[in-house]
Write a structure and sequence with these properties.
The chain has about 80 residues and is an all-alpha fold. The protein has helices at about 1-15, 20-40, 45-60, 65-75. The chain is built from 4 helices and no strands.
């Protein structure tokens, strides 16, 4: 499966270990399908969203629109 192989390579480039990369790639494929169905978007759009989140995360950054949620976690104590 070409998509899986490409995703594994991308996960490795973003810092996943050899062991984690294939697992993460399979999870991305599954979740993109779920998101597409839930939101009424294409699987490509869903995958684009998920990969964008991964890139932000690999940089240690919070994606736009998520900053307010990150700040709320600490205030729930």
């Amino acid at each position: 499966m070409k998509d899986l192989r490409s995703l594994v390579e991308l996960c490795l480039k973003l810092g996943s270990t050899e062991e984690q990369a294939p697992i993460l790639a399979k999870q991305l494929l599954k979740r993109s399908s779920q998101l597409a169905e839930e939101r009424g978007i294409t699987e490509t759009e869903a995958m684009d969203h998920l990969l964008s989140l991964m890139v932000y995360g690999s940089r240690g950054e919070v994606p736009p629109g998520y900053a307010s949620q990150a700040g709320q976690e600490g205030s729930k104590k």
